[in-house]
Every structure is written in C-alpha cells, then in structure tokens.
Amino acid sequence: MLKRGLVCAAWLAGCAAGTAAQKPARLPVTLQDLTVPQARLPAGCSLAPIAAATDHDVARGGLWAGLPIPTNPWIGTERRLVATIRSRIDGPPRAPDGPPLAGRAASRYFLQSADGVEEAYAAIYRQPEPELIVVYALRFAVAGKDVDRPRYEIGPKVQTAPRIEFGPITVVVSGERGECSYAVESYLRSLDR
Fold first, then answer.
1. Is 90 exposed, middle or buried (0-12, 13-18, 19+ CB in 10 A)?
2. What is the C-alpha to C-alpha distance for residues 132 and 47, in angstroms, rounded to an integer?
3. In the predicted structure, residue 190 carries a pLDDT above the cut 70
4. Mean of pLDDT values over 116-133
5. Helix/strand/coil percent split, the chain, to 5
6. CA–CA separation, 111 vs 182, rounded Å?
C-alpha cells in the first residue's frame, strides 16, 4: 500500500511539473493590441499626432487618411466610420441592380457595410516618405472566414495590401511599402504567435 501511495505521489508530482512547464494559454488578440509600440518602429516612423502643423502654420487634425477620427489610434462603433473602414478593407459595396441610388437611399445602402461589424479600428503612422501608413481593422460578430463578402468589389489596391486575420478580427496595412510598413506588418503578424 505504501509503495502504491509513493507511485501515485510521484505520478501527481510529474503531472504538476508537466503542467507548470506548458505555456499558458494565449489571450485572443484585441483591437487594442494592434497599436505598434514606438520601440518596435524604425526611426522616422511613429503614430501621427492628433494635430500637426502644415507648411503655412495651419494646424491639421481630426482628418487623417480621409477619416474624421478624433483620436489616433481610433477604436469605435460609429456606423459611418465603420462602413468607411470596411470599404477600405473589402472594397466598396457593389451597386444594387436597377437605377443608381441617390441621396438618403445611397447613404443607407453604404451604411449596410457596417452590418455584422462589432467594432472598428484605425491607426495612422507617419514615415519620412510622404505617404501615410494606415492600419484598418474590423472585429466581426463571427470569425473572418465566415464573414459575408460577396457583395464587395475588391480592387487591385485592396488585393495587394497585407491582410492579417485573428479569428473575428481582419486587419489590413495600407500605404507605400517600406521600412515603416514592414515594421508595422511584422509587429501585427507577431501577435498571432
């Protein structure tokens, strides 16, 4: 009986040691995780400030990459911004059959792009070259491969942008390829490890 007890104790100790040696379960990636720490960016690459002076000492802010976002990075659920970000990730929605939509009908149709999206993200990075690097992301109610995308016309610019998926989150890095965009993309891909 004593021998059996020692064997059980040794087995339990081995199980405990094996469990302690296993890596802890990774938490799922969130939109907040997508912002690249400054230490991971090359010199001259950084998050764009909320306001910046232009050539004529005029402050520019709140409209980065054509998005009227109040913060950088931005996370939110405002339908017009969500629909705009989705059109930048998936391309614009295909026009419905029939006569072209106008006014409110066109706006309602465009805002349908926000359906199924729980939250959106945008972060704008400056680099020495003139073009900005923009990270767009959407967190869908369902995982990325199950998202309904057949009504979108994906153009060549959208097709060539690096696309990364973390379960229900789809991320696209847009902008001129260079040291800054590669660092941003590398950081984002490292989140999945």
1. buried
2. 10
3. yes
4. 90
5. 35, 20, 40
6. 32
**Helix (H/G/I), strand (E/B), else coil: 174:** strand
Distance CA 37, CA 125 (A): 11
pLDDT tens digits, one per residue of 18-65: 544 555 566 789 999 999 999 999 999 999 987 655 566 655 555 678
Q: What is the pLDDT of residue 79?
A: 94
Q: Which two tokens mark 179?
A: 């040291």
Comparing CA positions, the residue from 138, 35, 125 lying closest to residue 85 is 138
CA 89/CA 179 separation, integer angstroms = 22
Could you tell me which residues come within 8 angstroms of residue 86 by beta carbon, excluding any fewer than 6 positions away? 113, 114, 117, 120, 138
Is the predicted pLDDT of residue 177 greater than 50, yes or no? yes
Report residue 9 as tokens.
Answer: 């104790």
Residue 129 and residue 178 in contact, taking contact as beta carbons nearer than 8 Å: yes
**pTM for the whole structure:** 0.76
Residues 97, 25: Cα–Cα separation, whole Å: 48
Six-digit token string for 8 = 């059980």
Six token digits for residue 100: 């072209």
83's tokens: 């629909």
The two structure tokens encoding residue 82: 């969500």
